[in-house]
Amino acid sequence: MSDEVPNIPMTDVPVTEVPVPEEEAWFSTLDLLILSMLAGFAVYWLFFKNKKQEQPVFKKLVVQPMAGKIDDPSFINKMKNSKRNVIVFYGSQTGTAEEFAGRLAKDSIMYGMKGMVADPEECELYELSRLSEIDNALALFCMATYGEGDPTDNAQDFYEWLQSGDTDLSGVKFAVFALGNKTYEHYNAMGKYVDKRLEELAAHVCLNLEWVMMTLSNIEEDFVNWREKFWPAVCEHFGVEATGDQGSVRQYSVTINEDIPKEKIYTGEIARLGSFINQKLPYDAKNPYLAPVRVNRELHKGGDRSCLHIEFDITGSKIRYEAGDHVAVYPVNESEIVEGIGKRLEVDLDTIFTLTNVDEEANKKHPFPCPCSYRTALSHYLDVTNPPRVLLLKEMVEYAREEKDKEFLAKMTASTAEGKQLYNDWIIKDHRNILAVLEDLPSLKPAIDHLCELLPKLQARYYSISSSP
Ligand SMILES: Cc1cc2nc3c(=O)[nH]c(=O)nc-3n(C[C@H](O)[C@H](O)[C@H](O)COP(=O)(O)OP(=O)(O)OC[C@H]3O[C@@H](n4cnc5c(N)ncnc54)[C@H](O)[C@@H]3O)c2cc1C
Ligand SMILES: Cc1cc2nc3c(=O)[nH]c(=O)nc-3n(C[C@H](O)[C@H](O)[C@H](O)COP(=O)(O)O)c2cc1C
Fold first, then answer.
1. Residues 6+ apart with CB under 8 A from 161
2. Model-level pTM greater than 0.90?
3. Residue 359 has what pLDDT?
4. What is the end-to-end Cα distance of the chain in Å, rounded?
5. What sort of enzyme, by top EC class, is this (predicted)?
6. Whole-number mean pLDDT of the chain?
7. pLDDT value at 249 more than 90
8. What is the DSSP letter of 69?
9. Handedness of CA 53, 57, 62, 64 (dihedral sign)
10. Residue to mutate (ligand 2; options 52, 100, 145, 193; most atoms within 8 A of CB)
11. Which residue, judged by its Cα, is nearest atom 28 of ligand 2?
12. Is the pLDDT at 26 greater than 70, yes or no?
């Protein structure tokens, strides 16, 4: 994360009523991890009432400000109109389940099927009972668990519907991929619940759910292993055959916006365009309040530990909070990494572009706020510091200009024991980020817009509020 003084001063935010003394307003001793993380330029308030302090549940913050309006809310109609027979629902807070859902939808092409991704929050789930109206139809659920075995925010209504509903789902084929972490008491609770409940409602499971252990380093490996068993099971069930590798299928198309007025270009805003200049009530998780830092004080004197006392100014925001609620810090990637990627790919990072979903039926029109510059996307919206996933590297193979780099990438992303070992050694153990990959494989020159499509979204960092109002 960037250690630099943010480029957009908080004091520019018009809601500031208390002037921020310079020596207190900015982070001055950014020598430890937590400190450097807090150097992100945007601090947003989140306020969630009645949450337990030890198990805070946070609200989804990544919103799609440009998402188009939903004309026909019926996902069954959408599937019929676009001749799709696979629907992949995701319950996701920080994007992993959503990313895997996208991958499963893409996979379906390899089996002569056609998939679409769906946010359960935007669907009338009682329509599931109509899924059997479509030939060889399949519903997949990638469900993450949070809190004390709770669903994600976007799966809350689905969860309630499952609990209360008595819909007859006979004839509906489904499978669940549960995302969780074994260190939690209620491991994979949501995935397990969905699996059990759908079967109770008479739906037919296509692949018995396997409880997978998720850790930070092997979450993708678990997913890859699961789908290796899953698709053959689907083939067997429906009597279909794999049609071969689908190659690279783009989910978004790029448009270069040459003559777009400045005020229409996102500059790092997480939600509303222009919110750095002008914030508008009411504030909530989808329109977070950018709070100026009023006091920033190191509590530890000496030693190598750091603990900050930070006060935010929420004057005029009408926000109420209590101890145990939390704030979100939006980090900004280091400019050296961003510039490094631009240099390696030989692109002008000031180019303004828009990525638009090629699937006209999709509710999510853009992967992150667009239009913006490549620099903004790589600095504010995309994670360029974590090791890239196998799924991303696999799509990079075609961009390697030298045969040896192509072979190396293909070997590393193959689902063989050797490939997995190579990925673990070269990517995970060495903690190679995308820039390091590009530097170490100089012939690799992916299209920057494709890279922007594939990189995971940069996540907010949450911090519990320790003081009462
Ligand atoms: C609801 C909630 C409340 C929370 N409250 C608090 C709280 O009050 N206090 C608190 O301390 N935490 C709290 N947390 C946890 C905190 O949000 C996370 O720990 C946060 O992600 C830490 O952010 P970070 O940027 O420091 O670390 P990370 O998010 O882990 O980011 C570290 C970065 O460094 C990179 N990196 C790691 N290793 C290497 C390497 N070897 N070489 C190069 N780069 C590397 C990674 O790729 C990554 O980009 C809370 C979390 C939640 C969900
Ligand atoms: C605050 C928090 C609470 C979590 N609670 C649980 C839990 O109760 N059970 C579980 O199996 N996993 C739990 N997890 C792990 C997540 O389910 C897991 O990281 C998952 O991959 C996240 O998917 P997502 O990125 O799609 O939101 C928790 C993670 C966080 C950050």
1. 125, 126
2. no
3. 82
4. 30
5. oxidoreductase
6. 82
7. no
8. P
9. negative
10. 145
11. 146
12. no
For ligand 2, pick from 61, 62, 176, 184 the residue to mutate: most ligand atoms within 8 Å of CB. 184
Q: Where are the alpha helices (DSSP H) in 424-466?
A: 434-440, 448-454
Q: Which two tokens stand for residue 192?
A: 């397990």
Our mutation pick for probing the ligand 1 site, out of 385, 389, 427, 467, counting the most ligand atoms within 8 A of Cβ, is: 385
Segment 397-427, tens digit of pLDDT: 999 999 999 999 999 999 889 999 999 999 9
d(Cα 63, Cα 182) in Å, to the nearest integer?
Answer: 28
- Angle formed at CA 281 by CA 278 and CA 282, multiple of 5 degrees: 145
Amino acid 252: pLDDT: 94
CA distance 355 to 366: 6
Please work out whether the CB of residue 413 comes within 6 Å of at least one atom of ligand 2: no
Tokens 């669907």 appear where? 123
- Across the chain, how many H-helices and E-strands are there? 14, 14
CA dihedral 319, 322, 325, 331 (to 10 degrees): 50
Distance CA 319, CA 279 (A): 13
| pLDDT beyond 70 at 4 | no
Over range 10-37, report the average pLDDT: 32
Extract the tokens encoding 85: 């027979």
Residue nearest atom 29 of ligand 2, based on CA coordinates: 146
Give CA separation, 368 vs 118, 338, 378, 434, in Å: 17, 17, 11, 19
Q: Judge whether residue 42 has pLDDT over 90.
A: no
* Chain centre distance of CA 379: 15
Q: Is the CA virtual torsion 266, 268, 272, 276 positive or negative?
A: negative
Rounded CA-CA distance 288/270 in Å is: 8
Residue nearest to atom 31 of ligand 2 (CA): 146
Query: 47, 55 in Cβ contact below 8 A?
Result: no
The better pLDDT of the pair 388, 34 is held by 388
Residue with tokens 């193979």: 397
Question: Which of 316-320, 357-361, 431-435, 455-459 is predicted with the least confidence, judged by mean pLDDT?
Answer: 357-361
Write b or e for each residue in 76-91: b if 16 or more Cβ atoms lie within 10 A of its Cβ, otherwise e. bebbeeeebbbbbbbb
Q: Write down the pLDDT at residue 301.
A: 81
More confident residue, 469 or 429: 429
